[in-house]
Automatic annotation (TrEMBL):
InterPro entries: cEGF (IPR026823), ECM_structural_protein (IPR050751), EGF (IPR000742), EGF-like_Ca-bd_dom (IPR001881), EGF-type_Asp/Asn_hydroxyl_site (IPR000152), Fibulin_C (IPR055088), Sushi/SCR/CCP_sf (IPR035976), Sushi_SCR_CCP_dom (IPR000436). The gene is LOC113985375. It comes from Pipra filicauda (Wire-tailed manakin). Belongs to the fibulin family. This is Fibulin-7-like. Disulfide bonds join 104-131, 159-168.
Amino acid sequence: MLLIPLPAWLALGILQLPLGSAQECLSRQQALSAVRQMQKLLAAQEAAHLRGTRGLRNQLSILQSHLQRQPTKRNDTCPQLAVPLNGRMLGRSVRVGHDVHFVCDSGFQLVGSETRSCRHNRTWSGTQPFCRSMDDCSSNPCANSGTCVDGDQSYTCLCPPGWSGPSCQSPIYSYWVTLSNASFSRQPRCAEGRSGSRRCSCDTGFQLRAGGVCQDVDECLLYQSSPQTRICLHDCLNLPGSYRCLCPPGYLLHADRNACEDVNECAGKQHNCTQGDLCINTFGGHRCVRPKCPPPRHNTSYVKTSAFQCERNPCPMESRACLLAATSISFHYLPLQANRTVPRVLFKMSTTRFVGDSLRFAITGGRGQGVFSVRRSDRQTGELLLTSPVAGPATLEVELEMSEFSRKVLLGKHIFKVTVFVSPYVF
Ligand SMILES: *[C@@H]1O[C@H](CO)[C@@H](O)[C@H](O)[C@H]1NC(C)=O
Ligand SMILES: *[C@@H]1O[C@H](CO)[C@@H](O)[C@H](O)[C@H]1NC(C)=O
Ligand SMILES: *[C@@H]1O[C@H](CO)[C@@H](O)[C@H](O)[C@H]1NC(C)=O
Ligand SMILES: *[C@@H]1O[C@H](CO)[C@@H](O)[C@H](O)[C@H]1NC(C)=O
Ligand SMILES: *[C@@H]1O[C@H](CO)[C@@H](O)[C@H](O)[C@H]1NC(C)=O
Ligand SMILES: *[C@@H]1O[C@H](CO)[C@@H](O)[C@H](O)[C@H]1NC(C)=O
């Protein structure tokens, strides 16, 4: 006998079951079939429930999107955007709160905003982007007839003989050796002695090593690291059987192989000073300068009398400011190697027509004043001294004044504007 308790809500579904009288018992077969029926019923009920919930949820979300879309019925869009030439725009929506993105075709670079958002005041954030060609050769970056090869992100210059550097700007002054055998190890030359002994030797610059191989001697490693045995002034390159000294750009390897000599770029056509500039050769390079007279001020004006000199125009009567101003100004550019020993006379100054009774010299201004001093060397001559070593590269400026007096009355004043270009190297 099996008694099955049934929940009230299932009662309707099992009316056909023979549950009529209380004393009646179900057979095992009947009970099983009743259970199966109930399981089916339960599954059907469950599915119906699910469908109901799903339908409700759908209706809710439709309602929600309706509510959200409400404002767009009023005009809540930003103006249409232009698609950049050679690029694409990602994102179509121009509604408030939406973003659009921009990308460029390969070979082009995006300039401007990558992403723009439609703001609440119906304007776009950022700026309209455009796609710029990445053809880096378009600006002709290779000097000295170098050939420009456009690359992925940058360009490469193929330099003509005699030039090197990323944009073929550096002349090659080192010499090239042709190597008959570019190998750092060679077989020794051996000879059989009469007694059956073997004698082997290596080419110059090679040493016999274990295993009977001639190994190149690294002269750079051996000598260059110590100041006492240094073989190259600047840099050393080991070669099979020998070595080569290297100089930085702007220097020429001297014939004796270990020295670097400055190249005078101003003498050749190796400078890039524009017309009107003066080319000043420095150790390892050059500078382009353009000396300028001071502008007119306090009744005082100057006129350029030569490339490096200005003279005061005649003063208006009774203009004291003009009379006290310098009668002339000259410009001086001095190249200097790094770390020169001190004290060192850099510059001497004197006057050609000395009519007064005394000359006074003074430093009156300029950057880098701390490393200079001025002194008299004789009655008519003054000297600019370097008083402490300067580690280059550096540009130092100093202004000197030479005043001529007669019975303590100022006769005239000359200003020397001195610029010192210090090399990055001690040569
Ligand atoms: C909505 O405004 C934008 C710019 O504010 C305009 O370009 C567009 O034509 C307007 N659309 C309607 C339907 O008014
Ligand atoms: C729109 O709003 C932004 C800030 O969200 C502001 O910078 C911009 O000036 C506004 N533009 C106009 C036209 O009001
Ligand atoms: C050309 O001038 C610039 C500075 O004006 C300098 O940096 C560059 O090295 C110069 N080029 C050469 C070949 O000297
Ligand atoms: C350089 O020398 C090695 C060893 O003596 C030899 O095997 C090689 O063929 C030589 N190379 C050239 C280019 O002569
Ligand atoms: C300029 O010169 C005039 C006379 O020519 C004079 O009166 C005036 O004070 C001068 N100004 C200065 C600043 O010296
Ligand atoms: C110059 O001297 C300073 C200090 O002794 C040193 O640090 C620097 O490397 C030197 N410069 C050169 C180019 O030798």
